[in-house]
Amino acid sequence: MVGTKNDVQKKASILIIVASFNELVTKSLHAGALDVLDSSPAQVTTKWVPGCFELPVVAAKAARSGKYSAIITLGAVIRGETPHFDFVAGEAARGIMDVSLETGVPVIFGVLTTNTVEQALNRSGIKYGNKGRDAAHAALQMIQTMSEI
Description:
This protein is α/β, with parallel strands linked by helices.
């Protein structure tokens, strides 16, 4: 029999991996995620990586370790004057999805992909909510869903 939501969360361990590039934005995303997870009995660990391109490799190692019920990846890729955005955003998204599918561990994509810094700031808590909070809610929901399957 599957435990209650609170029972499942008590046993849960969540890793948050945060890209330090665009730190003003990612610190806010991280704070939003922690705000949600602080009210959960799940054990939470945070690791910082240089940028979004590094998120998948750390997520893969963590997922394969068997230590985590879910992994949240947080970052911000902001379009600039070069095609760098297209390479980083797409590859980070693909890599994160591949880890989740390969390992069966929910890896939540909390990476903002915006055209401007203003859009990124708005989505990290200023105007349109905080996508870090949304990612934390998604992780908790996925932990429950995976325990029921």
